[in-house]
Amino acid sequence: MEQDYPWIKGVGRVAELPASFYHSFSGGLLEMGELMRHAEPQVFLRETLLILRRFIGFDSAWWGQVCPGVDGAGPRNLLHASIGLSPTFAQEWNGVIAACDWFAQDSIGSLGTVLRASGECDEGPEEMLAFVERHGLHTIMAITFELPGSGLLFFVCLYRNCPHAAFNDVESMLFLEFSQHMLQSWKYRLADWRAAFGAASLEEMAVADTRGQLYYLGRRIGDALARHCDDWQGTILPPSMMAAFARLPCGVTLGGAKLVLEPAGELVAMVLAGAGQRAQLSPRELSAALLYARGQSYKEIAREMGLTPSTVRTYLRNAYYSLGVSNKIELAAALAHA
Description:
Structural class: alpha+beta
Number of domains: 3
CATH topology of the largest domain: Beta-Lactamase
Strand order of the largest sheet: 1-4-5-6-2-3
Order of helices and strands: EHHEEHHEHEEHEEHHEEEHHHH
Number of strands: 11
CATH architecture of the largest domain: 2-Layer Sandwich
Strand content: 15-25%
Shape: elongated
Radius of gyration: 23 Å
Oligomer: single chain
Distance between the termini: 64 Å
CATH superfamily of the largest domain: Transcription factor LuxR-like, autoinducer-binding domain
């Protein structure tokens, strides 16, 4: 373990634990696997961390996606969820804390390594000390991973309110093992989404619920939102994106980036469409697009073409993507000039 910081890096030496404990922990991992198969994505990570809470007690938790700081700027949280923390927590952190949060920056620079700290926080910028006190962050354990293909990082932080309730070596070992399994399960879910939504890469995909709450965000879409949506704070889609939900499937333009939006059950998939990736419509896609442009519904098109409504949605998504259009009027115009 490295000790050149006011916190502990790494797991340390852990004595052998009773077989009954390993059996219980293994059961928790198996339960996580079942959650990955059956739980809705909006509850999977939360319920998984509640499983972890059986083995590692914590008062609050924070997890999500973050981009490292560049050109002297601090890191930025783009997507988050939490247990036991204020709804304004991430906004406060982004606004005044990130640039001076050396613990977070060290975690970002030590991917896959557990960091933990405890004790009274009496050194550092006044804003940081007030933030720690206000949210009860006196004891912390965190880990940050690369989220392959996304262009962003995935992090998990656990907190205890008491400054003298330090996370020990056994808890740090369990946290590392559990977090690795959780990340792997999440990567499987993302791979399934990418295949289902036809995204070229995870960087070019995002998933939200119908209220605009993001559950996954690729870097290129995050960059477009940050660059072209004033005061976007992350996690919740901006109003301009939410307005498009009333006309799904559709396209939305952000600067030079075009996003294709489509319904996916209780979720909305967003895929970045690049001009260099456009292709000609297949005959079936063209037929579905023509019928939709003439005013027919998904179900009506499905009956006429002998398809399922979900297949019709896929055809229409591909048509919007290929033609570079944002709504039904633009679709009709593009088809008329095709």
